[in-house]
Amino acid sequence: MNAVVEAGVKGRAIQVGLLGAGTVGSGVYAVLARNQSEIRARAGVAIEIAMVADLDTARASAVTGGKAQVVADARAVIANPDIDIVVELIGGYGIARQLVLEAIAAGKHVVTANKALLAVHGSEIFEAARAKGVMVAFEAAVAGGIPIIKSLREGLTANRIQWVAGIINGTTNFILSEMRDKGLDFDVVLKEAQRLGYAEADPTFDIEGVDAAHKATLMSAIAFGVPVQFDRAYVEGITGLQAADIRYAEQLGYRIKLLGITRRREDASLQGIELRVHPSLVPTKRLIANVEGAMNAVMVHGDAVGTTLYYGKGAGSEPTASAVIADLVDIARLHSADPAHRVPSLAFQPAAIDATRLAVLPMADTLTSYYLRLRVADEAGVLARVTGIIANAGISIDAVLQREADQVVGERGGQTDLIILTHTTREGTMNEVLAQLQALSTVLLPIVRIRKEELA
C-alpha cells in the first residue's frame, strides 16, 4: 500500500521529509506550523514535517526547535519507511537529481522548488514517477507564490493556449526598475542589488536569463503538451542593456522587461513553438509593464478565456513556502486516487506529450518587432540609406526617433542616435538587415537591437 494512502487509511498525520533547511525550507516549516489547523481543514488530514536533512544540522535544529528529527544525510530521510512525501529544496542539477530519483524509487511522492532540475531532467523524473505511481509536484519552481503552474495545468485546461509571457525573475526586474527610475547603467545597479540582497554574489543565472529560461521551459511544456526542452530555448540576459535605451524606450511609450515567452505558431508554412528569454520593449499601457521591483507577473492567452494576468512575489521564504505547502495539500487530497486519474505532471496525458507535433522553432524563425538604436554620423542622407535597407527587406517601420548622442571623450563629433521601431518581421530577416546596416561607414558603433512585444 502506498505510504500516503496508508496514512489516510490509518488516520495518522502525513509525514514529510524536508531536504534543505535554508531560506525556503525554514519558511515551509514556519508556515506549516503556524497554519496547521487551517491546512488540516483543507487537506482532510494533518501534514507534519517529521525529518529534516541539512548539512548544517545546527541550523536545521534551530528551524525545527527540536520538534523534528534532524540528520545530515538526506538518504536517511528517503530510507525512513514512515516518510510519505519528500520535499526537495537543495537546488541544482547534481545530488538533487539523484535524491529525487531515489525518493521516487522508494515509492514516495516528491515536492520540489527546483526549476533547474526539472527544466533539464524533467522528462526523466516525470517518467520515473509515472512508472512508480507517485506524484511530482512543483508549483514553487515557477514564480514563487504565484499559482501559475496550477492555473496552466488545471484552471485553464479548457483552453487552447496561444502564448505565455512573463516577468519571472525578480532580480532582473529589480535591476531594470532601478535603471529606469534612477537613470543608472547596469553595472552600477547590479552592485546595489547585491548589497541589498536581491542579487547573489554570483548573479550569472539571473542576469544572463538562465533562471527565467528554466521557468519558461516548464510553462511551455504545460501550455503546449511537449517535453521539457531547456536546451532548445533561446536565452539572452540584460547585461548589455544601457540606460540610454531604457530612456529612449520610455520616450516612445515602452518599458524594457526581461520576458520569458513561449508562443504557439501555426502559420500556413510553419508550425511549432517559440521558446525564448530576452529583454523586450512592452507598451507602458500594459499592466505587466508596470510590474516593478522584485515582483513577478505572468500573462497567459487562451482561446476561450482571452488574456489573464497573474501577479505576486516570485521568491522569498514564505511566498515560496506557500506554493510548496499547496503541493503537499494536493498530494494529501489525491493520495487515494488511481494514478491514471490524477492531474498529469505536465497537464497532458503522458501518451499525448509529443515533441514532434509542435517542435521548438529556431530563433531565426521567430516573429516579433524590434527597437533598433544606431549611432550614426550626423550627415545628409544617412537616414534615407538606413530606412532604405530596412524597406528593401520588406520590413515596415513603425516609428523613428532622432536624438543628439551623448558624447564620450575621444568620439568624433557630429553624431546622432537614430532609434527605429519596426513592425513584425522574421528574426532571420532582421539579422540580415543588421549585418547590412552595420557595414555602413556612417554607422559608428555596434547597433543595439531589442525585441518588442505588444502582448495584445
Structure explained in plain terms:
The protein is an alpha/beta fold and 456 residues long. It folds into three domains: 3-145 and 318-352, Rossmann fold (3-Layer(aba) Sandwich), CATH 3.40.50.720; 148-313, 2-Layer Sandwich (Dihydrodipicolinate Reductase, domain 2), CATH 3.30.360; 364-452, ACT domain (Alpha-Beta Plaits, 2-Layer Sandwich), CATH 3.30.70. The chain is built from 16 helices and 17 strands. The protein has helices at 3-10, 23-34, 36-43, 57-64, 74-79, 95-105, 115-132, 148-155, 170-182, 186-196, 204-207, 210-224, 243-251, 317-334, 382-392, 427-438, and strands spanning 14-19, 47-53, 69-71, 85-88, 109-112, 136-137, 161-167, 234-235, 254-266, 271-283, 295-302, 306-313, 367-377, 397-404, 415-422, 425-426, 448-452. Strands 7, 8, 9, 10, 11, 12, 13, 14, 15, 16 and 17 form an eleven-stranded mixed sheet that branches. Strand 9 and strand 10 (271-283) form a beta hairpin. Helix 7 (115-132) packs parallel to helix 12 (210-224) and helix 9 (170-182) crosses helix 10 (186-196). The longest helix has 18 residues, at 115-132. The protein is elongated, with a radius of gyration of 24 Å. The mean pLDDT is 93.
Q: What fold name goes in the CATH topology slot of the largest domain?
A: Rossmann fold
Q: Please bin the fraction of helical residues.
A: 25-40%
Count of structural domains: 3
Mean pLDDT across all residues, rounded? 93
Mind telling me the CATH class of the largest domain?
Answer: Alpha Beta
The CATH architecture of the largest domain would be 3-Layer(aba) Sandwich
Q: Give the biggest sheet.
A: 11 strands, mixed
Overall 3D form: elongated
Count of DSSP helices?
A: 16
Derived structural class: alpha/beta
**CATH homolog superfamily of the largest domain:** NAD(P)-binding Rossmann-like Domain
Distance between the termini: 50 Å
Number of strands: 17
Beta-strand share of residues: 15-25%
Unreliable stretches: none
- Rounded to an integer, what's the Rg over CA atoms? 24 Å
